[in-house]
Write a structure and sequence with these properties.
With 323 residues, the protein is an alpha/beta fold. 48% of the residues lie in helices and 8% in strands. Helix 3 crosses helix 4 and helix 11 runs antiparallel to helix 12. This is BTB domain-containing protein.
């Protein structure tokens, strides 16, 4: 596996960047907004970007570029070298060029890094290169910590697969979390559809707590159906085998807590939260019948069945959002 490239800060004074962007025989110089020069090869830029292809072709023939995105790029020629003045800073430019060159991809440590590179690639229409960056946007670290930011960035750049994946990860957090400035760059309708998706997933997941027919055929063996020493719930419940069973009240109390939790955070991890399990396990521990089986049966139930059913329920809910 290739090692990520560690970005080296450029010299604060005007100068040529470090290798591989300092070759004297390079035929293009990118002059960034913070006064750093990148010596690069024209053929690489032409292959990577349709906008830069237009700019470089126009500079060589002394004509005006036809692409709208090329109008803000100033170009001039000195001997055999074309100099392009770009508005991006050296740090973002370095990361972008590493994606264009046949070398290891640079390390993008923050979502700001990813967003900056995506913005520059979108501006210069680097379609093929974007395909490599979009995978970095949905790394587990970003999805776990900032799924709403990932959602907003992905939707902003019309990355449908990444938008849908990030939307599912937002289910692991309360529906109203801290504001993120990336929402300023997407329409309110997209955020509304995300909230609607969250609500519908909560409804679908909560439905599992009031209907036990999805339990496996072996469910009647679990201790909360077998024990006659504990207080039973006032209602009896049908299972997948078509029979009606009495069930211990401490199990129903767990399902009621799970229902409330799933309404707020509709994801599979919610049902195995110790805060939901502990009150029922403590009650089961006081029963001579349940104390020996409750923990194991709960582990099997939540891990092998309940979590899987929650995943199935939310997977059936569509993120109704246009691209």
């Amino acid at each position: 596996m290739s090692q990520p490239i560690v970005s080296r800060p450029p010299s604060p004074k005007l100068g040529v960047f470090s290798p591989p962007f300092d070759n004297a025989d390079a035929d293009v110089i990118l002059h960034t907004s913070d006064g750093v020069q990148f010596r690069v090869y024209k053929i690489i830029l032409i292959i990577a970007s349709s906008v830069l292809k237009d700019v470089l072709s126009s500079a060589s023939s002394s004509t005006q570029p036809s692409h709208p995105a090329a109008t803000g790029i100033k170009s001039r020629q000195e001997e055999n070298t074309i100099i392009l003045d770009i508005k991006e800073d050296s740090q973002t430019t370095e990361r972008l060029l590493h994606f264009c060159y046949p070398s290891a991809d640079p390390a993008l440590h923050t979502l700001d890094d990813v967003q900056g590179v995506l913005e520059m690639m979108k501006k210069y229409e680097m379609i093929e290169v974007i395909e490599r960056v979009r995978k970095l946007l949905v790394t587990p670290h970003f999805l776990e910590l900032d799924p709403l930011r990932v959602f907003a960035i992905a939707y902003r750049y019309r990355l449908e697969e990444e938008t849908r994946l990030a939307a599912k990860y937002t289910l692991r957090h309360p529906i109203f979390g801290p504001f993120v400035s990336d929402l300023d760059h997407i329409p309110a309708s997209a955020y509304y559809r995300l909230l609607e998706y969250h609500r519908k997933c909560g409804i679908a997941a909560c439905a599992l707590t009031a209907d036990f027919t999805w339990f496996p055929n072996s469910a009647s063996r679990w201790v909360w159906f077998q024990c006659d020493d504990c207080v039973h719930h006032s209602l009896s419940w049908p299972l997948a085998d078509g029979k009606i069973y009495e069930v211990n009240s401490w199990f129903i109390e767990y399902m009621e807590r799970a229902r409330d939790a799933l309404r707020e955070i509709p994801c599979s991890k919610t049902v195995s939260d110790p805060l939901l399990l502990c009150p029922s396990l403590e009650r089961a521990a006081g029963c001579p019948t349940c104390r020996f089986s409750a923990f194991v049966d709960f582990s099997v139930f939540t891990t092998d069945y309940f979590s899987a059913e929650v995943e199935k329920a939310i997977d059936a809910v569509d993120l109704n959002i246009p691209f």
